[in-house]
What does this fold into?
Amino acid sequence: MKSKDYQKGIKKKLRDAPKLEGYYFSPERAREVRDNGQILSIRVETSLKCNLRCSYCYSAGGKALPNEIKYEEIIDVINQAKDLKAESIVIIGGGEPTIYPRFRDLVKYVHSINLIPVIFTNNQTMTKDLAQFLLDHNVSVIIKLDSLDEKIQDEMSCVKGAYKNIMRGLQNLIDVGYLNFKDEQRLKLGASFLVNKQNASSVPAIWKFCRDRKIFPNLEMMIPNERGDEINNLLLSREEWKKLKLQILELDRSEYGYDWLPYTPLLASGCFQVMYNLYITVEGFVRPCSDIQVNIANIKNYSLKEIIELPFFKRARNVDKYLLGKCGNCEYLSECIGCRGLAFTFSRNNGEDSFEALCSEDPSCFK
It folds into this structure.
């Protein structure tokens, strides 16, 4: 953990960890665009259709819904985001975005209007041709990599052969040049791993695998969802999170010379997306982030400009001014606002109203 003595001494020898282009924005930029009535990115679901059946997934089936938003509606909302000064479009799928029928058209359009496309993919369909297409269109790619153990990855994906496909796709991305960027801070390839009791012990190995190859390690915290105890029984405790985060921090400091605040939900990055981002579901509902599951506004009834002015969204974008508990009194408030999705979900499950839940204390923080 950081201390004043640490900041004066060892800190001088360390440096900030590299980030993925188009995916991470600093707290300073987040506050700047928030105060200017702008956004920096949107995350867009295309369809719930998926070729995996991951054990932790909230959609629990991977089947498309009958009322999913149309391609033209996605394009319209992207244009609105650009008008609000967005810099990137995160195509998160909802299911697997690369099997969306108009996936390439969507990427081409985002690239054509000078925004950075970012995709989350389970890497099951990553041919060399697709990898080259993504590189040619400046796409930042985040692949699924929940474990380096083939058995565990296949079990978490609920599909035999998932691990081999992930590794084959990763090699295709590497072969076309996804690790050939000279700017150390401009990473274009990331690996996302959702941490729970199934894979927590192997997370340091995944982290080292990523760092050694200059791949952005995107550690995600599992959030309770509609699958109830099936998910809740896999959640890490506060003490388990403490042990894991400090282990990874020591790894980064000692082997790679990176330093970061250990309390943030996204390790080595922090997460301020509720201030600058909007998440659009396959049904067109808009949320401050994917895990703040409210259906207050829909792109069919409101413009993005109108949505960020709605009371709930104004509270989310200014949440640093309203935080409760130890989050509100934290000395690191300028660097961390906790995981708003986790705080919201736990508080709502305990009967709090949406406004208070949004500002509640992050239950995973061990400070």
